[in-house]
Design goal:
The protein is mostly beta strands. The protein has strands at residues 21-31, 70-76, 79-87, 90-94, 99-102, 107-111, 116-121, 131-141, 152-156, 166-167, 173-174. The strands form three sheets. It has a five-stranded antiparallel sheet with strand order 1-8-3-6-9, with no helix packed on it. The protein has a four-stranded antiparallel sheet with strand order 2-7-4-5, with no helix packed on it. A two-stranded antiparallel ribbon has the order 10-11.
Length: 176
């Protein structure tokens, strides 16, 4: 098979995908400095519909967050999510008792299977400088025989993920 570009499409939110991918999303939010609650200063809430803010006003969205940006507890069923952190932090908690904060270079793999409730919040931990969040997430459709699998959550920490070091023809290393 020859290497060739099959199609070029404009990026959109969410990205158009084909089975088994249900959705692919790239979040890049340029959040301001946070307050003592890891959220917005109240003066920055003007013009936002908190709890339903996908506006990208001023370069960021609160999504479903009312204090801290993100996605409070919500259900998933019959698919898997893979989330890769590039910048900033994500606080995860779920109905299995899993909880933790992950960031740049870390990856989260969650199998919803027969059902899980989880939360993904984007804490604005820096009170003295902006809080940039960049994550990439894909949702994979589980095959019919696995739709009701036991839910599972796993963190893959940056330090434990194998890295491939490439060297170009000039001997220059490409460090991911």
């Amino acid at each position: 098979m020859k290497d060739k570009i099959l199609a070029i499409e404009a990026l959109q939110m969410p990205w158009r995908t084909d089975d088994p991918f249900l959705v692919a999303m790239h979040h890049l939010d340029h959040y301001p400095k946070g307050n003592e609650n890891m959220g917005l200063d109240p003066s920055q809430e003007e013009g936002r519909v908190l709890g339903q803010d996908f506006s990208n006003k001023d370069g960021y969205s609160m999504y479903h967050g009312k204090v801290v940006p993100g996605f409070p507890y919500h259900p998933h069923l019959g698919f898997e999510t893979i989330t890769i952190g590039k910048q900033g932090f994500v606080d995860h908690s779920d109905s299995l008792g899993g909880a933790g904060r992950f960031g740049a270079g870390d990856a989260q793999w969650m199998t919803a299977g027969k059902g899980i409730q989880h939360s993904e919040m984007f804490p604005l931990i820096h009170t003295d400088k902006p809080n940039i969040l960049e994550i990439f997430q894909i949702w994979l459709n589980l095959p019919s025989q696995s739709k009701l699998a036991e839910p599972h959550y796993k963190m893959l920490w940056n330090e434990s993920i194998p890295k491939i070091e490439e060297v170009d023809t000039n001997g220059k290393k490409n460090n991911p």
